[in-house]
Amino acid sequence: ATSRNFRQAARLLGLDSKLEKSLLIPFREIKVECTIPKDDGTLASFVGFRVQHDNARGPMKGGIRYHPEVDPDEVNALAQLMTWKTAVAAVPYGGAKGGIGCSPGDLSRSELERLTRVFTQKIHDLIGTHTDIPAPDMGTNSQTMAWIFDEYSKFHGHSPAVVTGKPIDLGGSLGRDAATGRGVMYATEALLAEYGKSISGSTFVIQGFGNVGSWAAQLIHEKGGKVIALGDVSGTIRNKAGIDVPALMKHRNEGGQLKDFHGAEVMDASELLVHECDVLLPCALGGVLNRENAPDVKAKFIIEAANHPTDPEADEDSYQEGSGRVA
Amino acid sequence: ATSRNFRQAARLLGLDSKLEKSLLIPFREIKVECTIPKDDGTLASFVGFRVQHDNARGPMKGGIRYHPEVDPDEVNALAQLMTWKTAVAAVPYGGAKGGIGCSPGDLSRSELERLTRVFTQKIHDLIGTHTDIPAPDMGTNSQTMAWIFDEYSKFHGHSPAVVTGKPIDLGGSLGRDAATGRGVMYATEALLAEYGKSISGSTFVIQGFGNVGSWAAQLIHEKGGKVIALGDVSGTIRNKAGIDVPALMKHRNEGGQLKDFHGAEVMDASELLVHECDVLLPCALGGVLNRENAPDVKAKFIIEAANHPTDPEADEDSYQEGSGRVA
Amino acid sequence: ATSRNFRQAARLLGLDSKLEKSLLIPFREIKVECTIPKDDGTLASFVGFRVQHDNARGPMKGGIRYHPEVDPDEVNALAQLMTWKTAVAAVPYGGAKGGIGCSPGDLSRSELERLTRVFTQKIHDLIGTHTDIPAPDMGTNSQTMAWIFDEYSKFHGHSPAVVTGKPIDLGGSLGRDAATGRGVMYATEALLAEYGKSISGSTFVIQGFGNVGSWAAQLIHEKGGKVIALGDVSGTIRNKAGIDVPALMKHRNEGGQLKDFHGAEVMDASELLVHECDVLLPCALGGVLNRENAPDVKAKFIIEAANHPTDPEADEDSYQEGSGRVA
Amino acid sequence: ATSRNFRQAARLLGLDSKLEKSLLIPFREIKVECTIPKDDGTLASFVGFRVQHDNARGPMKGGIRYHPEVDPDEVNALAQLMTWKTAVAAVPYGGAKGGIGCSPGDLSRSELERLTRVFTQKIHDLIGTHTDIPAPDMGTNSQTMAWIFDEYSKFHGHSPAVVTGKPIDLGGSLGRDAATGRGVMYATEALLAEYGKSISGSTFVIQGFGNVGSWAAQLIHEKGGKVIALGDVSGTIRNKAGIDVPALMKHRNEGGQLKDFHGAEVMDASELLVHECDVLLPCALGGVLNRENAPDVKAKFIIEAANHPTDPEADEDSYQEGSGRVA
Amino acid sequence: ATSRNFRQAARLLGLDSKLEKSLLIPFREIKVECTIPKDDGTLASFVGFRVQHDNARGPMKGGIRYHPEVDPDEVNALAQLMTWKTAVAAVPYGGAKGGIGCSPGDLSRSELERLTRVFTQKIHDLIGTHTDIPAPDMGTNSQTMAWIFDEYSKFHGHSPAVVTGKPIDLGGSLGRDAATGRGVMYATEALLAEYGKSISGSTFVIQGFGNVGSWAAQLIHEKGGKVIALGDVSGTIRNKAGIDVPALMKHRNEGGQLKDFHGAEVMDASELLVHECDVLLPCALGGVLNRENAPDVKAKFIIEAANHPTDPEADEDSYQEGSGRVA
Amino acid sequence: ATSRNFRQAARLLGLDSKLEKSLLIPFREIKVECTIPKDDGTLASFVGFRVQHDNARGPMKGGIRYHPEVDPDEVNALAQLMTWKTAVAAVPYGGAKGGIGCSPGDLSRSELERLTRVFTQKIHDLIGTHTDIPAPDMGTNSQTMAWIFDEYSKFHGHSPAVVTGKPIDLGGSLGRDAATGRGVMYATEALLAEYGKSISGSTFVIQGFGNVGSWAAQLIHEKGGKVIALGDVSGTIRNKAGIDVPALMKHRNEGGQLKDFHGAEVMDASELLVHECDVLLPCALGGVLNRENAPDVKAKFIIEAANHPTDPEADEDSYQEGSGRVA
């Protein structure tokens, strides 16, 4: 799909076909064997890789995923997508993506550390502050970045800038946690403004209360928006007068489930997407709106905040420590 | 086939299955985009790659091919094969293989130089005297190695040892040209010795008069063997009394075709493999002996000297400058 | 002249004669042979050089010129001048200068690219962000800097800071284009202020409408100055009421010649320097005011904006892309 | 003269004029300022340089001279000459030459050490085992090479191969001392052989008893040649029966002057070159044979062993420690 | 004492004993032999060292001392202290300390320069902008840092950030001179604020008028505090109405002794610490207040500004150029 | 003792006292903290160190010991001893020694591997083929060297020459195993030759049958010497007709104890050193001959082959894999 979109753009721009081909071929792809001793003393080999798509505009940038079915073609496409994303956002970076074919959930913390360090040893000469800067992605987090930073520094000296998404104590950026949700709020604000409306005074229904959905809800609430219905796997709730989002956050952070929140009534999950409201924000799985339920949607505006069909909150921009994917 | 053979060997050795898996996964694979200006000013992009299979026994070693249909799986297999070859030969090297997807015949010498230099710029950090040492292979030759050596030296200082198969004037090894043919002669000598025979006093039929066949013929002739029939695309000839191989070499080096050689009579090409003789040496295409013609073969011994089904003389051990594949 | 001025300064400062000698000897001079294939396939060799005068105050800084008659002594003098310029301006840099002996106008764009890349390969170890930072100069421009940046980055990783004067898209500084003209305007403003006057309310005659003159004219116009006469090779014009400089810029940018501009009347070129005005700004060739015409000059103030006898606008501070010197 | 000879050779070889030009331009020339504190505490600045002519055949090779009137053009010529010398001798090296403009005799040992170390600091990145390997030359010796080796090693690790001509205890080659004299003996032997003669049975007159002459005399003596006359600044002597060269060496090594040697009679210096003999070997100043004395020369063969008009024994091949030039 | 304090903190934090042990062991200690020629031509060898305690939070930071009795255990403790200081101050640095066992007062400036340069050559690979950044300390000053910076730059390129405390002309920080005194003033201000008081309106007695005491006095004076008594080795003075500190500074900078200052009356040194006042600031030797004089102290507040028993003003934070310790 | 011996030598050589002092101070000493996770998941910190005594004659050379009571002073002495040993043996190396304070017997193989790799990471910049080359020593073996080689190669490329004593399959030297015993045999041969005797025809008593003693016995047997008595902890045996050493080796290699060997009779261990013989070779503990037993020794010659009081066969020259010290 990425290539199809690119080809369409190339046609619209009247790009020379050779230049088009050249832009499609990645700058560099690397696969490395990562062999580690497991905790039980046996050896295990994993394949790690990094696709570096383009560095014409600056050092390449993109996530590192740990996933058993990392698909090379998909990763190629995502690396390319990073090139277009950094270019469209006009930041001086290129695009890359990488990962290791493994089930992070089946590896102990100590095995994950060893695997990450071996992977870093194998690619340390090909990444770097001025070359290619990894970030957390599906199945990795700020701890993974800390290991990469530490291992890379053994070879190149103290180099915190070799990764983004590292722990704040090691120089990570404040605000990364909320960034995707904040982007969703800004997109909502911009869309409404085009129609002479604002967040304050509108009503919102949000599907998903993970990293994206909870921050979107909170920031929309801060701007005066009324979140009237909200749901995730732990429950679906509504409150016509507007849910008290900070209270809900507190409830959830204390381990509570949505369905047990006192400030709202439980509703049927199947009614969430078709609930009456001004703005509907699907922030969980992608592909939830389809031919069948589309006619019943009553929202006036829809903001697509779930960008990945299988693991919607896990892309480089939204994944964060503590979301439980690694453990 | 390489992997199947390896797995069989692993079973016989009683290798642990994890170690077996680890030995099958290449140490490192790299793909790079090589964009060059063509002579007409347009841009062209090619994909170059290098598979480094194993370096446990020393720096990796293997050819660089230029071929339009370089198949990644085949190259992976060939890189692995190099690991086993260097190990079996007990030389302190590992295995690798690489190439560029291009038609060397469609590129000018100047385009080939630019392409080789760009490819070298892209992989220079991953090869080296102590890391991985390329060699000529299908579609490349000593000139290609000279370009790699020169470009590599811009980054790492005068480094003749970064490639083998370079021109003799730049430090290449004497005898490389004849090496495969000489190996064929040694194998023949060893086989005959086991049966109480020797080259001197035996008769030989040779298919192919390229790098392998012509050197095999010449060295067998020197050892007193009688080459009684011989053929390539320029003709098939025989002489019961034994062909004067040095004279034939001179004839061919002056541009003559086999069928025009005065010291032998022309025969039908189809009869070559089934010609009466002590030893038959197929030195051209692989797979020439099959179910159909096998029953008619009259030779007492067969030495397999054609190791590749599609381009038999072109592997790293036999390819040499001037064999016309590049031009 | 540079050395004479320096010696005079040294005397005034009471510098030890050994220290004086040491300050005159350049830190390092390098000459390299640059051989490239020309578009017609023949080889051509050029001599490139770099004089690094002094790095006591920081990385050295200075232009790269492409000119057939680059004179080593002159370049030495200019490198030294850069040391004094950076010191007087109190920026933490030293002084350098370099170039290639070639006629950029006789080389195709592709030949210029090859030449620049070979030159960069030959000196890459001696320049660098913390060592010596080239800039455009006579016969070179932001494209030349982009090539140096790209070639240098092959050796040292993404290094935009190795050159200044690169294209803005690659990290070049905004405002570089107008910098010299803006400096002329500031000098004018300062001079007038000393005499209780200001740009607003004064009349100006400007010789030259290239990079320096046109920006000086525009900025003086913005400050309320009245440009009453102006000339370059495409015509000499005047307008007592003040020329509409933005309109003239538009006219010129659309390819128009000065003599065809509607908002002014054509005058004789020879009268420009002796035209009645408050301030005369020679912004074209140096040495235009001499014993013969000096007595006739009627301007009350003269700002010297042409600093080079043969190619006045071409020094490192003023040269910019598109000024036609390369093509 | 070097260039003239080269051009003549180029004509004979039918070299393309562009290639000829390219071969004349040095690969790289570098000049550096070397400032040291003198023993009296004042500063002194010297200009050091290195001309690297050509590295196509291997690392460049050539001497480092310390001389007050080091002439850049002469050094360029000598660097070029080294390229042709290594090529003709078929050793895998290119050509270079360098030096410092100073009077080694006016500097203390400690000042010479400081100067050599500063010079090495300034050029260490441009020389090296695989790049350019200095050697002793006029005004430098094995001690100078030891300083270069030590200083270079601070930057690049223990690197004895960065210089030749170092002290034997630090890895210098045995036999270097006698090498030029031995070459003279071999040339003499080869010349005589062409005429059916041999050293044994011939008579010799030798001018000069320094490094070249004394070793030539000794080796000719060993081969059975009869040295019948011999001279240097300390005297001119003859002995029809043949001078006992080992005894003369002993005499001289004990500080004796030639004129005081008991095994020969003193003769007039002016008669040496015109003395009756089979072979005349001028091993002192160049240019001693000229239009005026040529008609009187009675030798049947002349071997030119003095290759430098002003300091004949001091080139890279002959200079050695202890010959008193530095002290 | 440092370790004891650390162990107490570890106990309070409930640190695992293995982690506690690991935090006590320095990351790296290095000792190097530094041999220099002395001015009289003889050789002298000194032992230089660097203890790098911990880099978990960033590049290590700490002074370089030149002192004849540098005690390894004390230096280890001080390096550890730097780790805790940078952590408590929440700056992203670790801790280190080093020095050379020598009497700086017995070495000439030229010997000190040679010694510093040799020491730098020996440790240059272990320090660096991203690794470990020295600073002046006892017996060293900004000139020492300039030598380290210059020598280090020979190996790693222009690197002003490899040291702090360098001369301002070479990039040193403004305000370093006054930093310790300013810290004393801030501490005083904070302490008084806790008791509802302020500097303005309080009276002060200051022991010591070196780098710490004079700046503390000046800054307290600026804030409106009344310095009523003050002493150093050149005299002890008092003025009930408040000493005019700027005038006293001028007096001292012109070489005057405290006892000769006209704006105060001389008093007995032994009475200084027990003088009536609101705040007493011992800014000279440590340990001046003890069991014997403590009962007599009349100050309501005491600010400890003397942190070192033998050389109180000489730690990394306070030492500055020109304080005469080296000369 | 080493320093005392050195001082005595210095006096005999008339060394300048400053040079003497300079020769005693090590070139460089380094201590590093090595923290590893133990198999049970807890952290453990060890102190590793390396003393590099002198590199004037070439790269430094010396063992790495793993021992709980590694004593810095002893290691300093041993490093110095290596300098004198390499100098006396006239090999172009300097001297070094190092180790880690740990009980190798208390660490699992996997913990030893992690510890060795961390230690190598901490010192990799300070050792190297041209700088300092470790070797096995007490508590380390060829496996330890293989780990160092592998870890070092991650930083510097395939570098087998960074250690000696590595496994033969990775490039270790043949004959290392027997080297010390062979040296003992050569020393014996030389001693006897001085007295007009030879190994053949002499009788030998050997204490110790470990690496040194068993090889000495075998090589003496090969030279025709008669080993008439022999002992280690597993028994003491004698045979007037000469023990069949190859048979004894076979017996021992099959796990047999000396006392169970059929080709000799068991004797009392206390009589071994005072047994009648031509040559006595103590090859076990040092210090076994003392005031008390010396008068009773009947051997005519004694060869000291036990050089270390506590662990006689464990020095760098004799230690080998499989001697059971690690396991």
Which terms summarize this structure?
homohexamer, 327 residues, alpha/beta, Rossmann fold, 2 domains, six-stranded mixed beta sheet, five-stranded mixed beta sheet, 8 helices, 11 strands, disordered C terminus
Outline the structure in words.
The structure is a homohexamer of 327-residue chains. By secondary structure, chain A is α/β, with parallel strands linked by helices. Chain A folds into two domains: 149 residues, Rossmann fold; 143 residues, Rossmann fold (3-Layer(aba) Sandwich). Chain A contains eight helices and eleven strands. Chain A has a six-stranded mixed beta sheet, with helices on one face. A five-stranded mixed beta sheet of chain A has the order 1-2-4-3-5. In chain A, a hairpin with a 5-residue loop joins strand 1 and strand 2. Chains A and B meet through helix 2, strand 1 and strand 2 of A and helix 2, strand 1 and strand 2 of B.
